[in-house]
Specification:
- The chain has 108 residues and is mainly alpha-helical.
- It is built from three helices and no strands.
- Helix 1 runs antiparallel to helix 2 and helix 2 packs antiparallel against helix 3.
- The chain starts with 5 loop residues before the first helix and ends in a 13-residue tail after the last helix.
Length: 108
């Protein structure tokens, strides 16, 4: 049977974080940038839950702080996605594009 340690979770979290950062830095589509930000937040959640599981094994069942923080981050990510998509829809109605280079036109 394969034993999955905290290191496996951290490597997966680092890979997700790297994919998210690459997506934010290289893409011009706002939808893909928002999805990349969600990947970054999910990588953070994975690390928080992995460390919570690690500390729970050491300190007992009262070490659930990482899981509580992960629930707050999931709530924040849902609010961010709703607000971001609302802004994106308003921008698309005005300019008929979702290109990141055109976003600076919102200030006019």
């Amino acid at each position: 049977m394969l034993d999955i340690s905290t290191l496996h979770y951290l490597v997966l979290g680092a890979a997700l974080f790297l994919l998210g950062v690459i997506g934010v830095l290289t893409r011009r589509n706002v939808v893909i940038v928002l999805m990349s930000i969600e990947l970054i937040l999910n990588a953070v959640n994975l690390n928080l839950v992995a460390f919570s599981r690690y500390w729970q094994g050491i300190h007992g069942p009262s070490a659930l702080h990482g899981q509580v923080f992960a629930i707050f981050i999931i709530t924040d990510a849902a609010a961010e996605a709703a607000v971001g998509l609302g802004i994106l829809i308003a921008f698309f109605r005005n300019k008929e594009t979702v290109n990141v280079d055109e976003v600076n036109l919102l200030k006019w």
